[in-house]
């Protein structure tokens, strides 16, 4: 009976600790060129741009490109239009289909 | 700053009804750029939450230069926050609780900030009021302000910050009531003010575009003053 009093809290603690999972953030941590996958539901004209945390467009990755419905990928080399590194911070890759924003991927950019 | 020092000097020299004290206010800022950015992050999967109220604390000095005109000078700091929090982590929460002898259970909720945003504004204000009544003194007025704003954003591996300086104004209706009591023999005065402040400054970093830190909006302020 005494052993049960000792074991029970230990077992409960063990179960709770093992239920702890690694933290996974809902954004991509980018230290180098990063691939962003997106899906569009219809054929149309697609624009993909990268904005910084001030909502300033630092790079256009795709401009008025005709794409079919389905999965696509773009790559950002972490540089702005002038070829400069715009600095660490939070960025968003935004996909526009026929002018309407259909996808946003958040990136934490921290170039090593 | 020069204007503020001049006003305070005038109040001290003038002598009567000079009062100095601490104020605290809550405002409802515009922050339209921050709201758009929060919406964008939320669309991207981060449930980013912005505060609804900007809190301001400051020091004010007031004095009457005539029967009907009251001047005020103040220095205050406004803050506005936004966060994306990591979800409750039972393992970490329990460990912290055990290691702190149970204190962690009392103090923490288990959540932790992953992305945190803080907008700050240091406000130096000068204002003139027209007194409508005696005691309680109801007065109405306003004046210009110098604003030094800063926006900081922290993520797990990055930290960004940009600042700028600009001008604004404020206008309000205030009520000053002498308490009848005192502190160390100095009479205490309580005051409340409600009004509107225009406090929007465009950041001037290389990559900040037209982004503005906008504390503009209606506010309600209370203060306690020592009257000399």
Structure write-up:
The complex is a heterodimer of chains A (about 110) and B (about 230). The longest helix of chain A is centred in the first third of the chain and has 17 residues, at about 1-20. Helix content of chain A is about 15%, strand content about 50%. Chain A is globular. Chain A has a single domain (about 25-110), classed as Immunoglobulin-like. Chain A has about 110 residues and is α+β, with helices and mostly antiparallel strands. Chain A has a five-stranded mixed sheet, with no helix packed on it. A two-stranded antiparallel ribbon of chain A has the order 2-5. Residues about 15-20 of chain A have low confidence and may be disordered. The mean pLDDT of chain B is about 90. Chain B has one domain: Porin, CATH 2.40.160. By secondary structure, chain B is of the alpha+beta class. In chain B, about 20% of the residues lie in helices and about 60% in strands. Chain B has an eight-stranded antiparallel β-barrel with strand order 1-3-4-5-6-7-8-11. In chain B, strands 9-10 form a two-stranded antiparallel ribbon. The interface between A and B is medium-sized, with 32 and 32 residues.
């Amino acid at each position: 009976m005494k052993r049960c009093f000792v074991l029970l809290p230990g077992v409960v603690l063990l179960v709770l600790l093992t239920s702890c999972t690694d933290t996974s953030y809902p954004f991509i941590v980018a230290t180098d060129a990063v691939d962003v996958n997106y899906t569009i539901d219809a054929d149309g004209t697609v624009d993909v741009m990268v904005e910084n945390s001030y909502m300033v467009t630092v790079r256009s990755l795709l401009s008025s490109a005709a794409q079919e419905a389905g999965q696509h990928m773009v790559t950002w080399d972490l540089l702005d239009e002038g070829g400069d590194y715009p600095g660490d911070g939070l960025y968003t890759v935004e996909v526009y289909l026929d002018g309407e924003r259909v996808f946003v991927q958040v990136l934490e950019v921290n170039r090593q | 700053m020069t204007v503020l020092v001049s006003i305070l000097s005038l109040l001290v020299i003038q002598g009567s009804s000079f009062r100095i004290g601490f104020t605290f206010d809550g405002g409802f800022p515009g922050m339209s750029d921050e709201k758009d950015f929060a919406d964008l992050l939320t669309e991207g999967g981060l449930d980013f939450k912005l505060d609804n109220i900007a809190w301001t604390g400051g020091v004010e000095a007031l004095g009457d230069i005539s029967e009907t005109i009251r001047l005020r000078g103040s220095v205050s700091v406004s803050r506005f926050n936004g966060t994306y929090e990591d979800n409750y982590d039972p393992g970490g929460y329990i460990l912290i609780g055990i290691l702190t002898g149970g204190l962690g259970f009392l103090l923490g909720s288990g959540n932790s900030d992953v992305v945190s945003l803080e907008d700050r504004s240091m406000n130096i204000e000068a204002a003139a009021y027209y007194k409508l009544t005696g005691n309680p003194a109801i007065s109405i007025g306003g004046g210009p302000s110098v604003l030094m704003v800063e926006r900081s954003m922290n993520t797990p591996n990055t930290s960004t910050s940009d600042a700028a300086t600009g001008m604004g104004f404020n206008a309000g209706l205030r009520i000053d009531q002498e308490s009848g009591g005192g502190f160390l023999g100095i009479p205490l005065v309580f005051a409340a003010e409600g009004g509107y402040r225009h406090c929007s400054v465009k950041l001037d970093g290389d990559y900040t575009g037209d982004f503005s830190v906008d504390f503009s909006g209606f506010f309600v302020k209370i203060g306690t003053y020592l009257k000399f």
